[in-house]
Amino acid sequence: MQKADQTLWENKEGFTISTNKDFLDKEMIHRFLSEDSYWVKGITRELVNAFIENSILCYGIYDGDPATAKQVGFARVVSDFVRFSWLGDVFIIPEYRKKGLGKWLISVITSHPKLKGTSFQLATKDAHSLYAQYGFQPLEQVENRMARSLNWEAVNDAYRINK
């Protein structure tokens, strides 16, 4: 049974998920996102640190005790815990894929008591079938939705990052 304040989950294979930001390997997260991801390739370490700090929940997956073990995955959530949640930057490092860790991570996130009732959104290029297993579906009434494009120049200016 998951409690609203639960911050640690363990599975029978010895992996752990934690929402304690102190355990996050920010260097590994930055390296993966800036070098291997398709969605924020080239992102600076400063911006990764900022989005971790500003996200309501960050989930790390560890191969053992999160205080000492290697971090093997990550995801973060932006939410007001009432109406809106956004899931982003979800990844498992390549050598740990095909072990069910991604499914476990999404299961833990989507079962959070304060997230499971919210309008939960995400963007993906290639993992639609994974997310569909947890209730995500294409947007309805897309004609009623609007978005403002990401402006990296303005973001970098706000954080005083010279590119």
Features:
single chain; 163 residues; alpha+beta; 6-stranded mixed β-sheet; 5 helices; globular
Structure explained in plain terms:
This protein has 163 residues and is α+β, with helices and mostly antiparallel strands. It is built from five helices and six strands, in the order E-E-H-H-E-E-E-H-E-H-H. The protein has helices spanning 26-36, 45-54, 101-110, 128-132, 152-158, and strands at residues 8-10, 16-18, 57-62, 71-79, 84-92, 119-121. The protein has a six-stranded mixed beta sheet with strand order 1-2-3-4-5-6, with helices on both faces. The chain is globular, with a radius of gyration of 16 Å. The model has no long low-confidence stretch (mean pLDDT 93).
Secondary structure elements and pairings:
Layout: E1 8-10, E2 16-18, H1 26-36, H2 45-54, E3 57-62, E4 71-79, E5 84-92, H3 101-110, E6 119-121, H4 128-132, H5 152-158
Parallel strand pairs: 5-6
Antiparallel strand pairs: 1-2, 2-3, 3-4, 4-5
Q: Work out the number of β strands.
A: 6
> Structural class from helices and strands?
alpha+beta
Q: List the total number of helices.
A: 5
Largest sheet report: 6 strands, mixed
Cα distance spanning the termini: 47 Å
- Give, in order, the helices and strands: EEHHEEEHEHH
Instruction: Tell the overall outline.
Output: globular
| Strand order across the largest sheet | 1-2-3-4-5-6
Low-confidence parts, pLDDT < 50 over ≥5 residues? none
Helix proportion:
25-40%
Radius of gyration (Å): 16 Å
**How much is the average pLDDT?**
93
Q: Which strand-content bin applies to the residues? A: 15-25%
